[in-house]
Amino acid sequence: MSSKKVFIFDTTLRDGEQSAGVSFTLNQKLKIAEQLQALKVDVIEAGFPRTSPGDLEAVQRVSREIRGCTICALARCIKGDIETAWEGLKEAADPRIHVFINTSDIQIENQLKKTREQVLEQAIESIRFARKFVSNLEFSPMDATRSDPDFLCRIIEAAIENGATTINVPDSVGYAIPSEHGKMFRDIMERVPNAHKAVFSCHAHNDLGLASANALAAVQNGARQVEGAINGIGERAGNTALEEVVMTLKTHGEALNVFTDINTREFYRTSKLVERISGMPVQWNKAIVGKNSFRHGSGIHQDGILKKRETWEIIDPEEIGIPQGTQLVLGKLSGSHAFKDHIERLGFHLTEDQLKRAFDDFKHLADKKKQIDDRDLEAIVGQRTGEVFEPVWFLDHIHVASGTHAIATATIQMRNKEGNSFTDAATGDGPIDAICVAVNRVIGVNPSLIAYSVENVTEGIDAQGTVCVRIQDEQGKVYSAQAADTDVIVASVNAYLNAVNRMLIVHSKNRAREQTAPSTGTQDD
Ligand code: KIV
Ligand code: ZN
What we know:
Elements: E1 4-5, E2 7-10, H1 26-39, E3 43-47, H2 53-65, E4 70-76, H3 79-89, E5 95-102, H4 105-112, H5 116-131, E6 137-142, H6 149-161, E7 166-171, H7 178-191, E8 199-204, H8 211-220, E9 225-228, H9 242-251, H10 253-256, E10 258-259, H11 267-278, H12 299-307, H13 317-320, H14 336-345, H15 352-368, H16 374-386, E11 393-403, E12 406-416, E13 421-428, H17 431-443, E14 448-456, E15 465-472, E16 478-485, H18 488-516
Parallel strand pairs: 1-10, 2-3, 2-9, 3-4, 4-5, 5-6, 6-7, 7-8, 8-9
Antiparallel strand pairs: 11-12, 12-13, 14-15, 15-16
Helix pairs in contact: 1-2, 1-11, 2-3, 5-6, 7-8, 8-9, 11-16, 15-16, 17-18
The protein binds 3-methyl-2-oxobutanoic acid and zinc ion (ZN).
3-methyl-2-oxobutanoic acid (KIV) binds next to strand 6 and strand 7.
């Protein structure tokens, strides 16, 4: 029996951006989309254009610039949403509109305040309307796993009859367990008479930590598209982590009789890029892309690995694109050409300006640290690529004094976008507190620092430290960011400032959004 292709639908830019504390700028979206193209995903869901002018513009740019994959835009079952989605997709080589409507009674009655019949009618009308713009049309009955199975089959049949070519059956609240999830797919495909005319897709959320297992169960029961995000980012506990499902399908492809076209060697790079840009650190023991995924603590395991790698590893780390070895790569005397050459081999492509600043960072680091390896370069260059979100405020100088008999004091000089310089000082419970208060005083903001951690990039006393912070604004929204430096005080102020910059950008985007868009929690225009 010939092996079947499973299409990989990436929603990092749409559902991934719905993660609390994450907001991508246009440049960041393009950067991620370019990397997804290199990863060879089949579909990129580039955004939900009706939600903001920024989302529309991002979908337009991705549609214009990315080739080799389908570009998809999300829309409620509302004419205005569908028209705006098409506005975003017009220049795509292979555009897809993705319409969704709630189908569980709990959401139909309490959120939409409609009846099942009204939902069915609205879905049909929207699908017909969307087909005027595209032939590639996806329909999602939202909260499918908590929907009445008879109604679910009815609406799916109608969706296919009226032109939907992909049927995505989402576990929107992450409620399903694998056996039930697999059965749901099998039942739908058996019961819906025109099921063979569409590709069935799964979209699992990770509220119970079962998203990848549920996606696998869906594939085992006939789904031929898997939706998910890099590093599993997304609403609440996130989406299916694409790297997990793809590597599962690759590892067990023969037994499952399926394959994907993903260039898995790009996973590590994609994961790092999304981690940096989203400001959401990947947990150490995260499958496939976590820092510990290919590290062996036990002596017995290390012994086995040295004799034959396969004794304790089911995947060759090179298959994921994880850089091998930690050789000394560059030193104090290395020139900008060697630097550029090397970081390009690591997969970074910087603008002239970013390159200049990254090279300055490298020289600065080389003055303090004797051995610079790939991990150091990734940390400093990553900072420069991660900062493509056009900061609102920049750090010029920081001076911190603290100790057993001193009140921690931070003196700071910062510049705004317009180039105006401001200096202030503050005391705090400790140096980090003093830094945050000083930044807040200059900018005139007051978020709470809710998490702070430092992690060494490499081994040794002169190692750089990566500082990760999470802050919360007055509305309870969380923003994360990170920065690296051999001086953890400098890394701390940069990480905090990155988070504050993110917050300011989201606040200004929200203001723009409030002025233009209706609430996306309804299905009324
Ligand atoms: O989780 C969900 O149901 C969604 C839909 C829009 C597909 O993200
Ligand atoms: Zn979702």
